[in-house]
Design brief:
Length: 347
């Protein structure tokens, strides 16, 4: 028996020294502590021994078992720590790398549509010009060929601020006047003017006392309605898709002659007629025309030399059509979700 114990002790030391991973650890565990392990076997033929011998063997084997178990546990702990440290050093995070920036918020839909129009028209050579929202009656109406008492003023029910001279602009067209007056050399003009406008409308699904427009003005020599048509074609295709068609319908604005309504073919039904185009196949997205000679002359541009075209889009209207928004108040209720993931709804 003693020999067996010595054998165990001597082989144990080398076996423990040779453990270098979990597999070899398990092998050693089985070799000594397993069902047929060397320590277990010490007590396998106890029946044949005397009581004293049994006690002695029992004590020795228990001591050995505890000793081996403790050693194996501590080796196991070392191995696990080593593995974790290796993992940590291999997976080191480089904290000097700049973090990915998270976008906070989304652009407002009206802002997005305005920017899209701006980018397109700027690529065609237009400058973006802004004007004041508190405007003179002179620029908002009179120099645009709408003298006091002109019936067409009624169509733009206006907020007046001081008597009949100062108002909240009812359209972005006064920026045309400001730009032409300010151009001392009377050089050609090519501008777009986005901005807020105001009318004394009751707010409902399609009207708001405050809304946004984008004005366009091109003045040069030999400009005709054909140039406007070409420009409008490009805008329609960019904003509503390559298959968009355009048409002009006769209309009236005091500052243009002739005046037109600008229609695009319905992007929803392609022109067959549906609820979006109210069965007509066409959708109106703005007014336009050839700049009235009175307007050019009012601003010091000789209408015998110069001609031009002008147009005005309602930004909300374009955004509503493009994104399937049915209520204009959606833009103003401050609900961030309204601006997230707006896809054009296929109706
Ligand atoms: N200012 C017009 C409106 O608010 C829109 C408009 C029509 C602008 C024709 C223009 C134009 O420049 O030529 O209803």
């Amino acid at each position: 028996m003693k020999e067996k114990v010595e054998l165990i002790k001597s082989s144990l030391d080398t076996d423990l020294d040779n453990i270098d991973n979990i597999n070899t650890l398990n092998e050693v565990k089985a070799k000594y502590l397993g069902k047929k392990g060397m320590i277990t076997e010490l007590t396998s033929n106890m029946k044949e021994l005397s009581i004293d011998e049994r006690k002695e063997i029992g004590r020795i084997s228990n001591e050995l078992r505890t000793e081996v178990t403790n050693k194996l546990n501590s080796i196991q702990k070392e191995l696990e720590e080593k593995a974790i440290n290796e993992k940590l050093s291999n997976e080191k995070i480089d904290i000097t790398l700049p973090a990915t920036k998270l976008k906070v918020g989304t652009p407002n839909i009206l802002e997005k549509v305005t920017e899209e129009l701006e980018e397109l028209l700027m690529s065609m050579g237009y400058d973006v010009v802004e004007g004041p929202e508190v405007e003179k009656d002179l620029y908002n109406f009179e120099l645009l060929n709408l003298p006091k008492g002109h019936p067409a003023r009624d169509a733009q029910d206006t907020f007046y601020i001081e008597g009949d001279t100062l108002l909240l602009r009812s359209q972005t067209s006064p920026v045309q006047i400001r730009t032409m007056l300010a151009n001392e050399e009377k050089e050609p003009v090519r501008i777009i003017c986005p901005g807020k406008t105001y009318r004394r409308d009751d707010d409902d699904a399609t009207h708001s006392h405050q809304f946004s427009q984008m004005e366009g003005l091109l003045v040069d020599k030999n400009i005709s309605l054909a140039d406007l048509k070409g420009t409008f074609d490009v805008i329609a295709k960019k904003m509503f898709g390559e298959t968009s068609k355009t048409r002009f319908r006769p209309s009236f604005y005091p500052f243009t002659e002739p005046s037109v309504e600008m229609d695009i073919s319905c992007f929803n039904c392609g022109g067959d007629g549906c609820h979006i185009c109210k069965g007509t196949g066409w959708i109106t997205i703005g007014g336009a025309g050839v700049v009235h000679y009175n307007v050019l002359d009012n601003c010091g541009y000789d209408s015998n030399i110069y001609s031009g075209f002008a147009f005005g889009f309602g930004i909300e209207r374009i955004a509503m059509l493009k994104y399937g928004i049915t209520d204009i108040r959606t833009f103003y209720i401050n609900d961030l979700r309204q601006n997230v993931n707006f896809d054009r709804k296929e109706a």
